[in-house]
């Protein structure tokens, strides 16, 4: 029971990070019409920026600022590339996937060659420290608490933006019917650029939570996570925001349970086999895709 | 009759999709306060013309709206300048509420939102009743009303409406045309594309007949209704 509870907390903390990543990823699918495989890479690169500034200045505030602005800048900079691709006639969403794959590989290579000599980075203990509470085997770390609380706040804010603001209404209009949105005079390009900004803001926030939860990052973390995010969003239904919430949490919990009850190295196998089975049964995803 | 102001003037407008010429050197004028009908069979180029005006399809030629050439402007700029297109097949945001659809229609005209909303609700009381309902649950006729209402929310100087009768029951079609006439009496200028030539000409002051991308006839509604060729081809000879 203690193992179960401990792993449940672990899983929810990890899952809540997946949820945020899938949400940003789905926003890109819905509004910008791209499969942004490099999104998690941007998050990891922002973690590097955070770490670097923290190392140089030891100023938490500056580090957070560097992290979020790096993420926003990376996402906005990628916009013209993706717009060029999506504007071409007869091109479907897969072209953007290949382009983002290219960007992802370039970023991984830069990190593994040039940043910190290719070694994984570890955040100082002043950044993330110790446990909050311990009950026998069950230990809640500060990182876990931050990840969970931060994710809940971020998800709430995101859905508030989407369903309660004018900007969010534009996002939903474009996601539902691009033609009709254009017809009634919604500036598609401007709104789309704003969605990159929001994805960047969210990505920067994820980078902070992830660094608090893991306390470290490696050049390969991004690709590793990107595969899971892509898989989760397909299993949930590409572009299905609510599906992403459920499936992201489920993935985190499944992985943690596999780690708790099997050997840690089997956790990926377990979660990917489960996703394989789901896709065989429901090719459109559990919650249905909004991409035709 | 006093000379009315030109709202829309189209000169030598062509639209091509690859090798297909959807519209060839079309000339058309819409004056303030008029209802102008665009008549033609399916595929004659009516929709292409309307989309070209909004620069949704890339046209060649000249489009003057209120005296300014708008041919190279972006769709959102054209809509902001006062043209709205109510597309065929009641294109609405079906997962959103009726009210949200109307809010979206007011994107370029949010400062007199309340006034426009009141006006739309006066024309279509059903939309007020259903304003918090999800738009996809409306009936076909109600969706068409929502589509028109959404267009009115932008307070347009020119309303272009594409096949408003498509797929609707005769009773509802009659209602919709009634509303178009009312809108015209209120001062709205309307460009109406319609396969149902009889209905369209009854509502319009003037008309243009399109055939495979070319205007073959034009004139007042009365002239067109009495024209032998138009009668034979588009009015079934039964007017």
Provide the fold topology.
The complex is a heterodimer of chains A (292) and B (239).
Chain A: H1 2-32, H2 39-57, H3 60-87, H4 93-113, E1 121-122, E2 131-135, E3 138-141, H5 142-164, H6 166-176, H7 178-183, H8 188-214, E4 216-217, H9 221-236, H10 241-261, H11 267-281
Antiparallel strand pairs in A: 1-4, 2-3
Chain B: E1 6-17, E2 20-31, E3 35-39, H1 46-53, E4 59-65, E5 68-69, H2 75-80, E6 83-86, H3 98-105, H4 113-123, H5 125-129, H6 140-152, E7 158-162, H7 170-185, E8 189-194, H8 197-203, E9 206-211, E10 214-220, H9 221-226, H10 228-234
Parallel strand pairs in B: 3-8, 3-9, 6-7, 7-8
Antiparallel strand pairs in B: 1-2, 1-4, 4-5, 9-10
Helix pairs in contact in B: 3-6
CATH topology call of the largest domain in chain B = Rossmann fold
CATH fold-level label of chain A: ABC transporter involved in vitamin B12 uptake, BtuC
Q: Determine the N-to-C terminus distance of chain B.
A: 27 Å
Q: Write down the Rg of chain A.
A: 19 Å
What strand line-up does the widest sheet of chain B have? 6-7-8-3-9-10
User: In the CATH hierarchy, what is the superfamily of the largest domain in chain B?
Assistant: P-loop containing nucleotide triphosphate hydrolases
Share of β-strand residues of chain A:
under 5%
How many beta-strand runs of chain A?
Answer: 4
Which second-level CATH architecture of the largest domain in chain B applies?
A: 3-Layer(aba) Sandwich
> Can you tell me the overall shape of chain B?
globular
Please count the beta strands of chain B (DSSP E, at least 2 residues each): 10
Please state how the strands of the largest beta sheet of chain A are arranged side by side. Answer: 1-4
Q: Given the structure, what is the number of helices of chain B?
A: 10
What coarse outline of chain A follows from CA principal-axis ratios? globular
Helix % of chain B is: 25-40%
């Amino acid at each position: 029971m203690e193992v179960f509870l401990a792993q449940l907390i672990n899983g929810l903390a990890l899952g809540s990070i997946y949820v945020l990543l899938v949400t940003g990823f789905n926003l890109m699918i819905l509004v910008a019409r791209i499969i942004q495989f490099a999104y998690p890479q941007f998050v990891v690169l922002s973690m590097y920026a955070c770490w670097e500034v923290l190392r140089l200045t030891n100023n938490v505030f500056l580090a957070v600022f560097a992290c979020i602005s790096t993420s926003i800048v990376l996402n906005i900079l990628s916009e013209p590339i993706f717009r060029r691709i999506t504007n071409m006639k007869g091109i479907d969403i897969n072209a953007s996937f290949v382009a983002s794959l290219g960007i992802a590989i370039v970023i991984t290579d830069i990190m593994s060659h040039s940043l910190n000599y290719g070694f994984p980075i570890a955040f100082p203990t002043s950044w993330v420290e110790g446990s909050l509470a311990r009950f026998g085997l069950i230990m809640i770390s500060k990182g876990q608490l931050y990840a969970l609380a931060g994710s809940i706040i971020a998800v709430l804010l995101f859905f508030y933006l989407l369903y309660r603001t004018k900007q969010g209404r534009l996002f939903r209009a474009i996601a539902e019917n691009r033609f009709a949105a254009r017809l009634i005079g919604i500036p598609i390009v401007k709104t789309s650029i704003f969605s990159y900004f929001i994805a960047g803001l969210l990505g920067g926030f994820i980078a902070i939570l992830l660094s608090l939860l893991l306390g470290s990052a490696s050049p390969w973390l991004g690709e590793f996570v990107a595969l899971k995010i892509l898989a989760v969003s397909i299993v949930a239904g590409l572009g299905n925001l609510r599906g992403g919430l459920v499936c992201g949490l489920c993935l985190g919990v499944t992985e943690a349970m596999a780690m708790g009850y099997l050997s840690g190295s089997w956790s990926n196998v377990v979660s990917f086999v489960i996703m394989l089975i789901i896709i065989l049964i429901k090719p459109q995803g559990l919650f249905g895709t909004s991409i035709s | 009759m006093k000379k009315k102001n030109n709202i829309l003037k189209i000169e030598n407008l062509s639209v091509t999709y690859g090798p297909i010429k959807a519209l060839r050197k079309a000339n058309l004028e819409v004056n303030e306060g008029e209802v102008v009908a665009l008549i033609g069979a399916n595929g004659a180029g009516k929709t292409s013309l309307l989309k070209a005006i909004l620069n949704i399809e890339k046209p060649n030629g000249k489009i003057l709206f209120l005296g300014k050439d708008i041919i190279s402007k972006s769709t959102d700029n054209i809509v902001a300048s006062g043209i709205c297109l109510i597309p065929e097949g009641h294109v609405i945001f079906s997962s959103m509420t009726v009210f949200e659809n109307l809010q979206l229609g007011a994107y370029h005209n949010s400062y007199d939102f309340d006034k426009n909303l009141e006006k739309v609700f006066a024309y279509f009381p059903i939309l007020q009743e259903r304003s918090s309902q999800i738009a996809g649950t409306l009936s076909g006729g109600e969706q068409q009303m929502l589509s028109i209402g959404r267009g009115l929310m932008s307070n347009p100087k020119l309303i272009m409406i594409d096949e408003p009768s498509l797929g609707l029951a005769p009773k509802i079609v009659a209602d919709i045309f009634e509303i178009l006439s009312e809108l015209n009496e209120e001062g709205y200028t309307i460009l109406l594309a319609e396969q149902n030539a009889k209905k369209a000409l009854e509502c319009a002051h003037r008309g243009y007949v399109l055939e495979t991308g070319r205007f073959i006839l034009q004139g007042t509604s009365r002239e067109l209704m009495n024209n032998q060729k138009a009668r034979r081809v588009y009015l079934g000879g039964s007017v």
